[in-house]
């Protein structure tokens, strides 16, 4: 059995402590008034040049206010010509204040969702193996179950963040704004706080119930005299996958798309699923390599690693296909209510926006295209690091442009949130792996899986 060492346990706790300190610093040091914002903008102007900074802010203010449905310029127009500059200045400062106060919430949510989606994606991959009655993968089931142990705390944290963030994330929760916006009024039957929370509870309850049920029967199967526990998991997996298809789509619309409630994309749910799925499979591969380096999982051979590498390669291409399908077709059609979503991402997040394409597509293609390289742990690790970093950036770009606009940076809060959730993830997952035999005895396909060769 795998045993969690004291050094790793201490390392995880240190990461969490550093993360909490950094997050506390980030929340306490957000600007409190528009005077604080003036000082920040003045510092930025002196650093970048006042003329460039002012024109940049004004250029993006109109777009961001329109995309998020903020009142901004609409109020200015209603005041008439007299006093426009004064009203615009006040409106702009209030808007920037709101975005800067949102920044630590956004950084926390990005990291919280990223590590949560690793567990949820692993659970979906696990369910697919049972529903397909796959013969190659049972030797990996304990690893998948260990990763999914993070699902319960991870999902609760994410739900609490989206429930407490309020108008920091979701402008449709601003009642004054909704009263002046016919589009948001038309969506209020779906986009209202009560229904929003009810849906979130249903999502995480369903996902966690399947995880609890399948894990319980997987443990029972090790000592069972028949395959009844396996059959129960098989049936539950089929229903779970149907449930997941619906709830993952709704979750994507609720937690991400509604940050810009005037914008929509029919590929959005698939896009988030692809990011979740390839990141989870990558995590499974990295955990397998780690355990084998510690002398465990002797029944896992290079063919299993090869197949995980194939999934990493294939779903990197699938993610790129969806990225291209969503971005290029919207950009080419140039429909105002659709293309606005990408304007700020290209203008203000240009390096990240196109850089993640290199990390999520070019690196996996170059490293994993050769079939032999998929069997070499170090090649899989290199590809895996690139994929995980790239998809963290992907989630970052789903959230930050919609919540903080051009007022983004990568600093203490972002690093602290990564450290906290990384420490929590490592502690929970490795602790779960240390509690059971890593070989799923009793599984009807375990012999086939042990003898699997590609």
Task: Describe the secondary-structure layout.
Blueprint lengths: L5 H23 L5 H15 L1 H19 L3 H7 L5 H48 L9 H8 L2 H15 L9 H5 L2 H5 L6 H29 L6 H28 L12 H26 L8 H32 L2 H13 L1 H19 L8 H27 L8 H22 L12 H5 L4
What do you see in this structure?
By secondary structure, this protein is mostly helical. Helices cover 76% and strands 0% of the residues. The protein is built from 18 helices and no strands. It has helices at residues 6-28, 34-48, 50-68, 72-78, 84-131, 141-148, 151-165, 175-179, 182-186, 193-221, 228-255, 268-293, 302-333, 336-348, 350-368, 377-403, 412-433, 446-450. Helix 2 crosses helix 3 and helix 10 runs antiparallel to helix 11. The longest helix is centred in the first third of the chain and has 48 residues, at 84-131. Residues 50-87 have low confidence and may be disordered.
Key features of this structure:
454 residues; mainly alpha
Low-confidence stretches: 50-87
Instruction: From the alpha carbons, calculate the radius of gyration and give it in angstroms.
Output: 24 Å
Structural class: mainly alpha
Count the E strands: 0
Cα distance spanning the termini = 27 Å
Strand content: under 5%
Query: Biggest β-sheet, characterized?
Result: none
The number of distinct helices, counting runs of at least 4 residues, comes to 18
H-E string:
HHHHHHHHHHHHHHHHHH
Q: What is the residue-averaged pLDDT?
A: 88
Q: How would you sum up the global shape?
A: globular
Helix content: over 70%
